[in-house]
Amino acid sequence: MFDAGIADIKTIAIVEDLGFGVISRMPMHEGLKKLALENISTSVKDIVKLSGSKVYVKEIQKEKGKLLICFNEKLKVSIKEHRYDEVIEAIEKKKKGKQIKEGLKKYLLKNGKEWKINYQTLEDAEKYDGIYVIYCSDISMPIEKAVKAYFERDRMKRASKH
User: Fold this and answer.
1) DSSP per-residue codes, 50-69
2) What is the C-alpha to C-alpha distance for residues 25 and 3, in angstroms, rounded to an integer?
C-alpha cells in the first residue's frame, strides 16, 4: 500500500514486476484531476461504508488494474469550511499588519488598503476537495475491499503493533 506522496507509475510498475499487488492513492496531476471530476459519483448504489465515514466510488478499468474514483461529501464540506475560516482569519491578520500562512496568500486580493477574498481561486481549490483516486492492481478485487484496505490501512497498522 502506498500513499500519494510515494506512489507514481514507475514505483508501482517496479512493485508489480516483483510480483506484489498494489493498492495506492495516486497523486492528483492535471490529467487525473480531469478524469476524477468527470467520473465522480453521488449515487447511493456507489456508497462504500468505512469505519468512520462513507465514500462514493466509481471504478474505471485500465489496461493493468483499475482506478477507483472516491468522493467523500462530508470531507469536502469540512475542508471547504475550514479553508474559508482560515481565509477570514488571514484577512483579519492582514488588516492588523500581521503575517499569514504562505498557502493562504493566493486566496486574498488587495484593493487599495482593503483585503478581500479571491473567490475564483477559492472556488478552483474547492473543486478537488474530498476526491481521491486509488489504483488497485487486482482487477478481480471487489471495490469495497480495495477501498476499505486503503482507507483503513492506518487502523490495520495500529492493530498489528499490539
Assistant:
1) -SS-EEEEEEEE-SSSEEEE
2) 5
Q: What is the CA radius of gyration of the chain?
A: 19
Residue 93 DSSP label: H
- Burial of residue 157, with CB atoms counted within 10 A of its CB: 0-12 exposed, 13-18 middle, 19 or more buried: exposed
Q: Are 56 and 41 in contact (CB under 8 A)?
A: yes
- Using a cut of 0.90, tell me whether the model's pTM lies above it: no
Cell of 77: 464540506
Percentage, residues of the chain above pLDDT 70 = 81
E-state strands within the chain:
23-25, 47-49, 54-61, 66-71, 108-111, 114-117, 131-136
pLDDT of residue 156: 47
The one-character DSSP state at 2 is: B
Under 8 Å between Cβ of 44 and 71: no
Residues in the chain, total? 162
